[in-house]
UniProtKB/TrEMBL annotation:
CDD domains: NTF2_like (cd00531)
A Pfam family of this chain: Lumazine_bd_2
Protein name: Nuclear transport factor 2 family protein
SUPFAM superfamilies: NTF2-like
């Protein structure tokens, strides 16, 4: 009976430790994507840049396939003046598997919504966005 109880305690401790680690990773991922969202809404390149690995890519389909360095593409023209129109943001989902994660975000402007799919890696102990793909949905009035 003591052996069974000891095994249960060991298993429960392992599960609790894993859940705490996942929650900590989730909190760090949310912090990372919030650097991106805050920087985007406030037109603040310095804050936005904190979210990305320096070699992160951004890809999308316009008239054709496009690919750029994410930081360069997103911060071009940012001057620190927040957008005048109302913008709402939300984290739709986050999935974590070890040192890799994905996050789906929505950034809603008055006439369109960006739907972002971010891929993150834990690089040197820090969660960084390493790639972003997105779709622009036009909003009907």
């Amino acid at each position: 009976m003591r052996k069974i109880l000891l095994i249960i305690i060991v298993i429960m401790t392992a599960i609790t430790t894993e859940l705490k680690a996942q929650q900590t990773d989730l909190q760090h991922i949310e912090e990372t994507v919030n650097y991106y969202l805050t920087g985007l809404v406030n037109n603040d390149a310095k804050t936005l840049t904190k979210a990305f690995h320096p070699t992160a890519t951004m890809k999308w389909i316009g008239d054709d396939y496009k690919e750029v360095n994410a930081i360069e593409g997103l911060t071009e023209g940012m001057d620190g003046t927040p957008h005048k129109e109302k913008i709402t943001t939300r984290v739709v989902s986050v999935n974590i598997a070890g040192d890799a994660a994905s996050a789906q975000l929505e950034i809603q402007f008055p006439t369109f919504t960006y739907i972002d799919f971010m891929h993150l890696l834990k690089v040197d102990g820090e969660w960084k966005i390493v790639s972003k793909i997105f779709y622009t949905r036009q909003e009907s009035k």
